[in-house]
Write a sequence for this structure.
């Protein structure tokens, strides 16, 4: 009697082991094509200055690497060419290479934000830029009627002018002014840049490590997936569900093995 029961149970074991292995495996990285910030900016047609800076500082390589190893995604604010012409003459040339990296990383938020989820975010929002005083941050204000999102740095106030791409895990928004961190430029009148702070005061940027510093936005403050993109939200929910189910599948497999052992012993 016991032998007739044991055989079907033994046949089920390989399937249970396969299920446990699938559940324990890490989720797939997002497709590389969706992470190409350079292609998104090139398609926009008015970001040549920004593209040159990104290439010179190799920031795009860093962001691509982060996206492949993060489930939170990234948000990038892209100043157009006209935005750079508004800067005082010599502003960019007055920056050290390290300060240029800090300036670019100040345009990166270490989470994916749709226009809708900006409304639930808690100020200040941390950026990827940092210095001796800690992580650089921005403040965001929104309106429920027009869905206008305005960024305030303490030096300039600028709204998002258009959406270049908003598909998780990467959102890219166009802005008509360069976001100037107060830590580098000090306080000034809106829309105008003061002379950059000396390199000694600005300190070394910790761009690659900034996403791991304390002070990040709590997960309860903003959704990591866009509200308007149903299929993207579904993917993230399935990933989370897969992680949680591994424990239950393992327990079920263990219980079945014990049952087989007991039947064989009987």
């Amino acid at each position: 009697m016991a032998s007739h029961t044991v055989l079907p149970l033994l046949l089920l074991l390989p399937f249970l082991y396969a299920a446990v292995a699938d559940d324990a495996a890490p989720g797939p990285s997002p497709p590389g094509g969706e992470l190409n910030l350079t292609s998104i900016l090139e398609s926009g047609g008015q970001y040549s200055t920004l593209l040159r800076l990104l290439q010179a500082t190799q920031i795009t390589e860093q962001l691509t690497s982060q996206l492949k190893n993060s489930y939170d995604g990234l948000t990038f604010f892209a100043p157009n060419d006209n935005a750079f012409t508004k800067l005082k003459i010599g502003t960019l040339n007055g920056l050290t290479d390290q300060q240029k990296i800090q300036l670019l990383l100040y345009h990166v938020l270490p989470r994916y934000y749709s226009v809708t989820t900006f409304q639930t975010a808690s100020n200040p929002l941390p950026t990827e830029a940092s210095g001796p005083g800690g992580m650089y941050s921005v403040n965001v204000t929104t309106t429920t009627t027009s869905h206008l999102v305005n960024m305030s740095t303490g030096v300039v106030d600028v709204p998002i002018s258009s959406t270049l791409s908003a598909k998780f895990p990467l959102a890219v928004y166009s802005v008509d002014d360069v976001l100037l961190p107060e830590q580098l430029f000090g306080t000034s009148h809106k829309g105008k840049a003061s002379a950059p702070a000396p390199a000694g005061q600005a300190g070394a940027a910790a761009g690659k490590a900034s996403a791991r510093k304390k002070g990040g936005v709590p997960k309860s403050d903003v959704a990591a997936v866009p509200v308007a993109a149903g299929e993207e939200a579904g993917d993230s929910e399935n990933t989370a569900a897969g992680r949680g189910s591994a424990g239950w599948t393992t327990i079920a497999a263990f219980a079945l093995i014990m049952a087989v052992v007991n039947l064989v012993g009987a």
Q: What stands out?
A: Residues 6-10, 12-34, 197-249 have pLDDT under 50 and may be disordered. The CA atoms of residues 25 and 145 lie 43 Å apart. Strands lie at 74-79, 108-109, 125-131, 134-142, 149-152, 157-167, 170-175.
